[in-house]
């Protein structure tokens, strides 16, 4: 069984993506908090890699693997490393857009 905190973390990313979308639309009202292209790339990458991919990962692991297999094959480690890299990518895209560190992450 997949821990409930994994599912909650996926929904936190959903909320972050929604907030990024609201900030993107605020540019039309004249509130330029940061460059639009940085927001656009952050929004799209975090939407797919921060919300869609981990949600599919949780659904597939929960559906096709037993609890023993999840423990044995270190899916928790993969899940944690994925989220560390997603957070690093979120920060890198917001600060520099497409550049060395955002591509690296």
The figure for the number of domains is 1
Give the CA-based shape.
elongated
Helix content: over 70%
| Spatial separation of the terminal alpha carbons | 29 Å
What can you see in these coordinates?
- The mean pLDDT is 86.
- The chain has one domain.
- It has helices at 4-26, 36-64, 67-72, 75-96, 100-104.
- Helix 1 (4-26) runs antiparallel to helix 2 (36-64) and helix 2 (36-64) runs antiparallel to helix 4.
- It contains 5 helices and no strands.
- The protein is an all-alpha fold.
List keywords for this structure.
mainly alpha, 105 residues
Quick take:
With 105 residues, this protein is mostly helical. The protein has helices at residues 4-26, 36-64, 67-72, 75-96, 100-104.
List the helices and strands and how they pair.
Elements lengths: L3 H23 L9 H29 L2 H6 L2 H22 L3 H5 L1
